[in-house]
């Protein structure tokens, strides 16, 4: 009989498209890990908040949805987005309100090449690409301020206000410096566009260099976002920890995931470092309507996100075991189509479960 150390309450929002498939995979693996390790027990609460339900009911989340989510220790999220609903509707009715209201002001996105897989970059070997992106997750270009005004018939003007507050810049930079400091290379690259954007981005830069004074042991540099795409592609080894705005990091982490092998493997953590509210864990990819329902989605981004959830909940050892199992499975050649293999979502999931049984 195992001694159960922890009881974790998790709210689960599977969402749309492959979101439901990869969430099922994550739940199966998390349950297996609880069974074989005996270290914890899950209480999963499933929320059927999705685009299909929105079309049926007219809402994504009930009025007290955010209050319901606050009762959990963590939130696990699949993906949202449907060809039948404009993306800005689904994003602004579900994922963005959760991130903002639950003060998940950090989006942490590790990227690396998994064993047995390869980068589309010719000369890039495993280990040459090992990055952590710290994405500002509360404001910036996604602050949601602006509007569309019809100034004259046939002449509409849309404005989109990016907001950079000193407090939000300070907290994301401190988190990024702490992350960089915790890694062997102690190296932080800040991404900006202050050559062309002269207010918010200039303040962003200024605060970065102020916070940098608190971390003399961390090596720092600054990259314009356009040049950053080139550096990621041509000199991946020169980067370690990267901090960027909400929009810039959104774009760069898709590129990062593609360079590491597939968008299907990349995890993300939406963190409230104050721990006043539950944090949320989700793969970076979307609902992938083009492959939904076929059972071929790569579950690794979802499984790796689940591992990061375990780590955040304090089960670091089990998180490491899960990541190790994922790597054993990719190395053994059990890979989905996006990684050049032929395995289905279920085959990868079952093989990870078997590997966890072997470890314990
Ligand atoms: P959304 O609007 O929800 O972001 P999208 O189609 O714009 O959806 P993604 O869902 O991220 O963006 O899909 C981009 C591409 O990557 C698609 O071709 C999709 O099939 C592929 N893809 C995304 N996630 C996975 C995955 N887990 N496994 C395999 N392929 C994936
Ligand atoms: Mg997308």
UniProtKB/TrEMBL annotation:
Pfam families: Iso_dh. Its EC number is 1.1.1.83. InterPro entries: ICDH/IPMDH, IsoCit/isopropylmalate_DH_CS, IsoPropMal-DH-like_dom, TTC_DH. It is an enzyme of class 1 (oxidoreductase). Residues 9-352 form the Isopropylmalate dehydrogenase-like domain. Keywords: Magnesium, Manganese, Metal-binding, NAD, Oxidoreductase. GO terms for molecular function: D-malate dehydrogenase (decarboxylating) (NAD+) activity; magnesium ion binding; NAD binding. Its cofactor is Mn(2+); Mg(2+). It catalyses: (R)-malate + NAD(+) = pyruvate + CO2 + NADH. NCBIfam families: TTC (TIGR02089). Belongs to the isocitrate and isopropylmalate dehydrogenases family. This is D-malate dehydrogenase (decarboxylating). It comes from Pseudovirgaria hyperparasitica.
